[in-house]
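Hi all, posting the design record for the shared folder.

TITLE: backbone redesign
STEP: 1 of 1
STRUCTURE INPUT:
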């Protein structure tokens, strides 16, 4: 009987160790990204709280503020939103799902800007597509694109969005955007 107990104990230790390694590795693969519509002041300070807009075919403009986070491995693990203004109507919106995030080459280094949101080394260019819900009950998609120093020219800077059946596709960037990859305690 003692031999059987030893084998049972050895197998339990091996399986527990394997479980811990797999869970630690899975947690390490989860990347949380912060997104912000930003302000850049006259001193070159990058701060959260900017406004950006896009126009529909009729010239009407949807203006958005916003920030939040998403987890690249779990499209439902999203936070954030902001405010919207369309003509004389306004309200809030919230992000409900990440559809896609694709990083792009680019850095804040050499831009002459001071990043007050996060670590400049963690700033990242790219494209995120997020489902959103507006406070008036309509739904839409926010396309959030960030172009930094050394980002390929095809990557746009700014936002486009839909609200109900209207697509605000003609970007009119008032303020830029930025992503920050968050690490552990960020």
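Okay, here is what came back for every position:
SEQUENCE:
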């Amino acid at each position: 009987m003692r031999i059987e107990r030893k084998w049972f104990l050895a197998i339990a230790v091996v399986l527990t160790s394997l479980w811990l390694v797999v869970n630690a590795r899975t947690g390490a693969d989860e990347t949380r990204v912060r997104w912000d519509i930003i302000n850049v002041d006259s001193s070159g300070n990058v701060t959260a709280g900017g406004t950006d807009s896009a126009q529909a075919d009729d010239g009407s403009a949807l203006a958005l503020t916003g920030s939040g986070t998403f987890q690249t491995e779990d499209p439902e693990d999203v936070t954030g939103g902001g405010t919207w203004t369309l003509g004389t109507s306004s309200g809030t919106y919230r992000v409900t799902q990440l559809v896609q995030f694709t990083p792009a080459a680019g850095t804040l280094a050499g831009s002459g800007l001071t990043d007050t949101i996060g670590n400049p080394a963690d700033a990242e260019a790219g494209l995120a597509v997020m489902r959103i819900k507006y406070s008036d009950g309509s739904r839409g998609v926010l396309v959030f694109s960030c172009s930094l120093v050394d980002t390929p020219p095809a990557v746009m800077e700014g936002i486009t969005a839909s609200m109900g059946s209207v697509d605000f596709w003609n970007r009119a960037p008032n303020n830029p955007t930025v992503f920050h990859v968050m690490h552990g305690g960020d």
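COMMENT: Residues 31-182 form one domain.
Let me know if anyone wants the other runs.
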